[in-house]
Specification:
Structural class: mainly beta
Helix content: under 10%
Number of helices: 2
Largest sheet: 8 strands, antiparallel, barrel
Strand order of the largest sheet: 1-2-3-4-5-7-8-9
Shape: elongated
Length: about 190
């Protein structure tokens, strides 16, 4: 079993104009049927959150007719991968993995308006304006197909735990056509 967190880098002109890089987290299970062959299988579930770029917020403002001041896209789902291990020492190893997955994308856009009120500081109060955010639009895709391939390294911490770091290329097929590409870099603990 493994638990991980990391950073996901957006790739390609299409997704980079819409989403900023974001943080991620998740958990998974790796299973090796036999010690004689360094081939195993892993199932990972992950969650990533990406804020919308200023360009995307401007396009959303134009299409909705509202003053969209904030937005983010949450991507969640999982992968089923094959994994090949190459031992570098007693318990250290390098591994390669790849497979298929399914993800959903939930996009939330928030409009901003300014309300007058009283602002109080340490030295008194004065009249001012506050930004007030409210949900303008939320949409969720169906399950989208994906594929991924990556490389990682694992180092022993003490029986039975180990530390790992891996990176992969992830491509998610979009419902309107085209692909969104990401490079998740993850660090974690495997038990």
């Amino acid at each position: 079993m493994q638990i991980f967190g990391g950073y996901t880098i957006t790739q390609g002109d299409t997704v980079k104009t819409i989403l900023n890089d974001g943080g991620s987290g998740g958990l998974g299970i790796t299973w090796f049927p036999t010690d004689a062959i360094p081939l195993g299988f892993r199932v990972d579930g992950s969650y990533t959150s990406h804020s919308q770029t200023l360009h995307a917020l401007d396009l959303a403002s134009q299409s909705t007719g509202q003053n969209i001041g904030d937005g983010y896209t949450d991507i969640y789902g999982g992968d089923i991968d094959a994994e090949i291990d190459l031992h570098l020492g007693l318990r250290s190893r390098e591994y390669f993995f790849g497979g298929i997955g399914w993800y959903r994308e939930r996009t939330t856009l928030k409009s901003v308006s300014y309300q007058s009120g009283e602002i109080c500081w340490f030295f008194g109060c004065q009249q001012g304006y506050f930004p007030v955010y409210s949900a303008a639009q939320t949409s969720t895709t169906g399950w989208l197909k994906s594929w991924n391939a990556g490389i990682g390294f694992e180092f022993p911490l003490g029986d039975p735990a180990s530390f790992f770091i891996d990176g992969r290329f992830l491509r998610i097929k979009q419902p309107q056509g085209g692909d969104w590409d990401f490079i998740p870099i993850r660090i974690g603990i495997r038990f």
